[in-house]
Specification:
Helices cover about 30% and strands about 25% of the residues. By secondary structure, it is of the alpha+beta class. It has 3 domains: about 1-60; about 65-140, 2-Layer Sandwich (GMP Synthetase, Chain A, domain 3), CATH 3.30.300; about 145-255, 2-Layer Sandwich (Ribosomal Protein S8, Chain: A, domain 1). Strands 1-3-2 form a 3-stranded antiparallel β-sheet. Helix 5 packs across helix 6 (about 175-185). The longest helix has 23 residues, at about 140-165. The termini are far apart. About 25% of the residues are buried.
Amino acid sequence: MIKEAIGTGTTVSEAFEDAKAKLNAPDDVTVEHEIIDEGKKKTLGLFGGSPAKVRAFYNVSEYSQAEEYITAILKGMGVEDPKMEIEEEDGTVKIQLDCGNDQGTVIGRRGETLDAIQYLTRLIINKNSEDYKRVSINIGNYREKREETLKEVARKNAAKVKKYGRSIALNPMNPYERRVIHTEIQEIEGVTSHSIGSDSDRRVVITLAEGFKATEPGGGYNRGGYYRGRDDRGRGGKGNYRRGGKSNQQSSQDKTPSRPPRSDSTTASLYGKIEPKS
């Protein structure tokens, strides 16, 4: 992509300086020029003549608009002198950020701030573009660490499902994180996964695969039909299972037959249909 400007002046040199001023190019780029018209001096300094005209130009990255956009966001967050590297690989625009001591601020709680910047940048890059491109923004090695954490979440909760036979609903996640969970579950025999909910509340549910039996059926579930195991932050959920025995609430629930997990399209009303009095 080329950015250019046309400048004029009494001489070629002046026209070039005028074009560069209009171009407002960054200091670290090389500005080239092309003489369009060398101009003519006026006869006797009074008649005729024409100004010199020069075209100044330089090559810019295809993603310079995205780079400027991200820089503006980061500086608005108080990040001093943010740096980034942008490359495209297999249809994905990968952006690596360096924000110094402000790394935690840019990542945000469980990556929510970084995900928001990534989402907005994807809109900028794909605006008026015929070829849709995925966008991945990373800072340090946060994405790699997060992916490993999600895989561990999938493995630990899959083990609980295989042990107790009850479905487990994980915390709400974005599409990328849900995809990591689904992919990891596909590699584990005896369990399967699907998503329920919508928008920011969409989450993965891990269930026992058809034809497999739990090793300790009947334990570790709550009134909602799901066992809330340890989440991706390492905290235990509020399920009714406890080591060394069963709570009173669980004992009464053991008599209730299990029910399949709710899917995206079969979420029922909590209290069922209410008929008006005749």
